[in-house]
Write a structure and sequence with these properties.
Blueprint lengths: L7 E5 L6 H11 L3 E3 L2 E3 L13 E3 L2 H9 L3 E7 L2 E6 H10 L2 E5 L2 H10 L4 E6 L3 H10 L5 H15 L7 E4 L3 H16 L2 H12 L1
Parallel strand pairs: 1-7, 1-8, 2-7, 3-4, 8-9
Antiparallel strand pairs: 3-6, 5-6
The chain binds guanosine-5'-monophosphate.
Length: about 200
């Protein structure tokens, strides 16, 4: 089977904008796309599985990985470290599947720098009030961590100009339609499917 060059789809948003729901929906619909599992030094939350949601590591292991140049990108986010390992992109390339990255704006910029044809999209909440409500509705936050997340969200939103596409998630069905339209259109870019023409012409 032909293995096409993977499409690297970066999805960023402030927490509370609905990014996880949208990514899960895309992964459920498209079997030829996989989620890039990041490494993190943050402790697992309830229900999170090691090796599925994240690879949970201690600071020492993370630092060793930085030293060994094992990350395409890594960043400090909310006081913890998060990074995308080179192995994730290699695995996607050899499997002929596309890859979704859930990373912050720093990760998005680094991935774009390393892979200029990566496609980045930014999910926005419909309003700041709605963002506050959604953050609060999670119920997992203490007032301090809520405030910290809210500040971080505003900081993240300040970088929206660096992304290729913007999606306002005021209606999850519409936002998902926009996201899948981007995926489908980007897959047909000439440089990603020139193999189809080659097969025809030779
Ligand atoms: P959470 O702790 O809520 O799972 O994630 C916090 C933030 O870290 C999110 O904005 C998420 O996009 C970002 N993040 C997750 N993995 C990575 C990664 O590998 N690299 C970078 N730069 N950010 C990440």
């Amino acid at each position: 089977m032909f293995k096409r060059r993977p499409l690297l789809l970066i999805v960023s948003s402030p927490s509370g904008a609905g990014k996880t729901t949208l990514c899960k929906r895309m992964l459920a619909e498209f079997t030829d796309i996989r989620f890039s599992i990041s490494h993190t030094t943050r402790p697992p939350r309830e229900g999170e599985e090691d090796g599925k949601d994240y690879v949970f590591v201690n600071t020492e292991t993370f630092e060793k990985m930085i030293e060994d140049d094992q990350f395409i990108e890594w960043a400090h986010v909310h006081g913890n470290r998060y990074g995308t390992s080179r192995g994730e992109v290699r695995a996607a390339a050899s499997g002929g599947v596309d890859l979704i990255f859930d990373v912050d704006y720093q990760g998005a910029a680094q991935i774009k720098k390393n892979y200029p044809d990566a496609v980045s999209l930014f999910i926005l909440p419909p309003s700041i009030e709605e963002l506050k409500l959604r953050l609060r509705a999670r119920g997992t936050e203490t007032p301090e961590s809520l405030e910290k997340r809210f500040r971080a969200a505003l900081g993240e939103i300040a970088h929206l100009g660096e992304f290729d596409y913007l999606i306002v998630n005021d209606n999850v069905d519409r936002a998902y339609d926009q996201m899948r339209a981007i995926l489908i259109a980007e897959r047909t870019r000439n440089n990603r499917c020139s193999h189809l023409a080659e097969r025809l012409l030779h």
